[in-house]
Amino acid sequence: MVLFNHNTKINNKVMYYYVNQNAQENGDHEVHQAGCPHMPDEENRFYLGNFDNCREAVAEAKNIYPRADGCFFCANPCHTR
Ligand SMILES: [Zn+2]
């Protein structure tokens, strides 16, 4: 019997991520997916790039802001604080 590799990507749509250049009250810089209703204003957002998931986006944001964290609404799996 042949075992197929089911590890292929099902959802390969590109997602665009932004980080808020303004810190939250707790010092976090939130990472948002394009289209999130809680996106920061245009002048306060920094484009991170397109990523498969929020973890990669937050990792990228941490190069700029060590206290980056996923948005509760659009990047909940990466929201840790
Ligand atoms: Zn968001």
- Walk across the major sheet and give the strand order: 3-1-2-4
Strand content: 25-35%
Number of strands: 4
Integer-rounded radius of gyration = 15 Å
Question: How many domains make up the coordinates?
Answer: 1
> How many helical stretches?
1
Describe the 3D structure:
The protein has 81 residues and is an alpha+beta fold. The chain has one domain. The protein is built from 1 helix and 4 strands. The protein has one helix at 54-64; strands at 15-20, 29-33, 45-51, 68-70. The chain has a 4-stranded mixed beta sheet, with helices on one face. A hairpin with an 8-residue loop joins strand 1 and strand 2. The longest helix is centred in the last third of the chain and has 11 residues, at 54-64. The structure holds zinc ion. Residues 32, 36, 38, 71, 73-74 line the site of zinc ion.
